[in-house]
Write a structure and sequence with these properties.
Length: about 280
């Protein structure tokens, strides 16, 4: 069973992340933060080597680089060079860790007209996909922040890019954040999905966004249905846990609750294991 985690939700320190995955007996990590405010893609060579050695010693492989490319913090008006440089920096590291996938997003808008946003997003992604293809890696677009946050615009990206180096990550919770229904979104794009993020939400009027993160299967993310379909289809990719319950890394919400973060992550993983077995 290919279970992994954004283990920075168990703790921002890489040693804590390894401990949580080891407790679950899991052998995959999707890298993101490896220290307070420090993204894995931004570490120097010595730190990369040290982290790789720790992961290797623990028998944990990097299943995907959870990159910052085109993400929530890099709007369409941001300097494109940031993304090109990050991709070129991580490609040799991906080769070193035997990792095929880098997670990307697709540029949140910054008050551009829709057509202009679309054209510039596609221009940038085409260049990034070309670099990825030339170097034997795959950019896997997550249905999160940016142009491809909706099913209609994700289909536009697939139509425009059409490359073996451009595939999809489906996050089970994110459609609920962007006004889409989970199953219609999934059914429309599943033929290009190579990786799954497990996240779940339920409606909650007391929350700012009207939704609240839950343990897998307790919300409206249709996780049981999607996992069941994937199992029947012979899916052999990875499932990455992204709880967003005790911590939301990209919002800086860790609140010095180290034990709660760790325990929540491990509990989340065990609940998903049980769900997977029943699906």
């Amino acid at each position: 069973m290919n279970f992994a985690g954004f283990a920075d939700e168990a703790g921002v320190n890489i040693n804590t992340q390894i401990a949580a995955l080891t407790e679950l007996h899991w052998h995959g990590i999707e890298t993101r933060q490896v220290g307070q405010g420090l993204h894995f893609d931004d570490v120097d060579d010595a730190t990369f080597k040290s982290i790789k050695e720790k992961l290797d010693a623990a028998g944990i492989g990097i299943v995907s680089y959870g990159s910052q490319i085109a993400n929530w913090a890099r709007k369409i008006t941001a300097d494109f060079k940031l993304d090109v440089d990050e991709l070129k920096r991580i490609i040799p590291r991906m080769h070193a860790t035997g990792t095929k996938i880098a997670r990307i997003m697709s540029y949140p808008n910054d008050n551009l007209p829709e057509k202009e946003w679309r054209v510039e997003t596609i221009r940038r992604l085409k260049e990034l996909v070309r670099i990825a293809a030339d170097n034997g890696v795959v950019l896997a677009h997550e249905n999160c922040s940016g142009f491809g946050s909706t099913v209609e615009r994700t289909l536009v990206l697939l139509s425009e890019l059409q490359s073996p180096a451009f595939k999809l990550i489906f996050d089970t919770g994110n459609p609920l954040h962007h006004g889409d229904q989970v199953m219609p979104f999934y059914e429309a794009v599943k033929h290009e999905v190579i990786h799954i993020h497990i996240k779940d939400y339920t409606t909650d009027a007391s929350q700012k966004d009207g939704i609240r993160a839950t343990f897998p299967g307790e919300g409206n993310g249709c996780i049981h249905t999607i996992v069941s379909q994937l199992k029947k289809a012979g899916y052999n990719g990875w499932f990455t846990m992204e709880p967003h319950i005790a911590s939301v890394i990209h919002e800086g919400k860790t609140d010095n609750r180290a034990k709660e973060m760790y325990d929540t992550f491990v509990k989340y993983g065990r609940i998903f294991e049980a769900l997977y077995e029943k699906a």
